[in-house]
Amino acid sequence: MGQHWKKIWVGSAGNMVEWFDWFVYASFATYFAGAFFPAGNDTAKLMNTAGIFAVGFFMRPVGGWLLGRVGDRKGRKAALTLTVSLMSASAVLIAVAPTYAVAGYGGVAVLLVARLLQGLSVGGEYAASATYLTEASAPGRRGFASSFQYVSMTAGQILGLGLQIVLQHTLSSGELHSWGWRIPFVVGALGAAVIFYLRRNMLETEAYTEATEEGTGESAEAVAERGTIRALMRHKREAFLVIALTMGGTVAYYTYTTYLTKYLSNSAGLPKQTATLVSFCALIVFACLQPLAGALSDRIGRRPLLITFAVGSTFLTVPIMTMLKHAGSFWPALGLSLLALVVVTGYTSINACVKAELFPTGIRSLGVALPYAIANALFGGTAEYVALWFKKGGIESGFYWYVAGCAAVSLVVYLTMRETRDIDLKRVGAGAPQGEPEAGKVPAS
């Protein structure tokens, strides 16, 4: 048990720093949006920075492919170490990027390169950590253990928002807009350097070690094709499932986490400090819910939680977002935000293990990485931009229906997919004997 927790701790700590760097771009965008673009409409400047934020998502499929391949061929440890190195480099670039006043659109170019590096990094990080946490967990505890992926992701955002609150109370608005926004990126770069050291000394998972050192009866050709697109094409159904089941979850997640602070500030009219505090408090509760929901999935299965999320998101998104716009103060905004995040927990707490449970060891990292990154590029990364586009067009409520519609599509998938809780990760898809289900043929509980 001690070794399991050590692996989970190291994997989660690295994931936390990765997502701190990823999310501080979004949470501090309101402060540095004007630094890289000429004077003009504030919503237009936010759309420009949101567009660059979305570009990072479009690099995630590339990162998913490259780093997923590394994870399947060189090990989960190698992939996790490489992802944090890329993230550290991107944080340094943003911290030193020149403003529009100094270098014109040269600063935008530096910002764009940094976001491309972040996209590569996070594109591999999600799958590497999802695979690592799922494989490193004790039998019957995969839902609980893998839930720490979103605990660490959310912790990264909480730290980012916490730092933002501290800076808001110690620096003036002018100082934050001038240079204070660079501080979190310096902190992120230093944190990534520490995690790089920890990950270089982390332990590999037993599932991967046994598959590569002891052999699983695979042919030489199958071994050579580990982590390749050709091998992934043998699991097209599972890859499609990852895209479809991610669609609704990723849109809802980014709506109520990344975009929430801006929505409360720009649409609900709350002061930036109040909007930030609402997000901060809501995310603390959200992080605490993840292990509870993950443990529940180990008892009742993954599908009930996924279906609960999709039903709730489909029918509650429009009223929640509408009421949030008219919340008016801290407590109503916090209550509505918590309601939304409780619903989203049905997806976030278990989606990592569900995806990892669909694929055999030799293609698990790439199988999770590439389809998930594609879904995020199409839906998660564009959520904020789509929201601002509707707002600029004067039909902001259209975004609420967009989020609900994406959840409805995923609901169909959850209702038709089979349960994955009881599969054997070391046998899935590898010619398991009778009674041991293969990927895509898992019997419902």
TrEMBL record:
Superkingdom of origin: Bacteria
Domain Major facilitator superfamily (MFS) profile per the UniProt entry, residue ranges: 7-421
Keywords: Cell membrane, Membrane, Symport, Transmembrane, Transmembrane helix, Transport
Main location group: membrane
Pfam families cross-referenced by the UniProt entry: Sugar_tr
Subcellular location: Cell membrane
Transmembrane segments: 20-40, 46-67, 179-198, 239-256, 276-293, 305-324, 330-354, 366-387, 399-417
Gene3D superfamilies: MFS general substrate transporter like domains
Keyword Magnesium: no
Mode of membrane association: Multi-pass membrane protein
Keyword hit for Cell membrane: yes
Annotated protein name in UniProt: MFS transporter
Organism: Streptomyces hiroshimensis
Taxon lineage: Bacteria, Bacillati, Actinomycetota, Actinomycetes, Kitasatosporales
